[in-house]
Specification:
single chain; alpha+beta; four-stranded mixed beta sheet; 4 strands; globular
Length: 183
């Protein structure tokens, strides 16, 4: 009787130990990743208010990130070395972003500021903040409510392109308009 009362708990512990070692469950497949076009599309003219312009044969959902990128030409504006001044190309993209945002008032934007790998972490965080703020202020000047706009700086921590040459540096000096909120 004593032997059964000791063996039963030991058997239960042994079975629990074996069941815990039963092998790993396979991980679920990752969902497909949305990719950005290699070269931004430049619309020939802005679509009429309330309409969207999509390439023939595509199925871009209105109000989606893909629609935003297609309509604005890009979700990214680039900056010169050690600068947070918007050039003409950056202003043109931000104007189209503001026009798209006017059609979708429930969408919020977080403007992410980035820098290339040169300079200290602290310096690049500050520069990324100035770049994000510059883009945010331009969007606000175009009529986007400031309550819909936020900024964050990643400095050199999230490069878009790996590399230590001028071509990589140029792509990493940027502000990215990341859509958030209702879409």
């Amino acid at each position: 009787m004593v032997r059964n009362s000791v063996m039963l708990p030991l058997l239960a512990i042994a079975l629990l130990g074996l069941s815990a070692c039963g092998g790993k469950k396979p991980l679920p497949e990752a969902p497909p990743v949305e990719t950005r076009p290699e070269a931004p599309m430049a619309p020939t003219e802005a679509p009429p208010q309330g309409e969207t312009q999509t390439p023939v044969g595509t199925t871009i959902a209105p109000g989606s990130l893909a629609d935003f990128v297609a309509q604005a030409g890009s979700d990214t504006v680039l900056f010169a070395y050690d600068s947070y001044e918007l050039d003409d190309a950056a202003r043109a993209i931000l104007i189209r972003q503001a026009q798209w945002l006017a059609r979708y008032p429930g969408v919020r934007v977080t403007v992410e500021g980035h820098a290339d790998e040169r300079g200290t972490r602290e310096y690049n965080l500050a520069l990324g903040d100035r770049r994000a703020t510059s883009a945010k202020n331009f969007l606000a000047a175009q009529g986007v409510a400031t309550a819909r706009l936020a900024t964050i700086s990643y400095g050199k921590e999230r490069p878009a392109v790996d590399g230590s040459d001028e071509a990589a540096f140029a792509q990493n000096r940027r502000a990215v308009s990341a859509l958030t909120g209702a879409q």
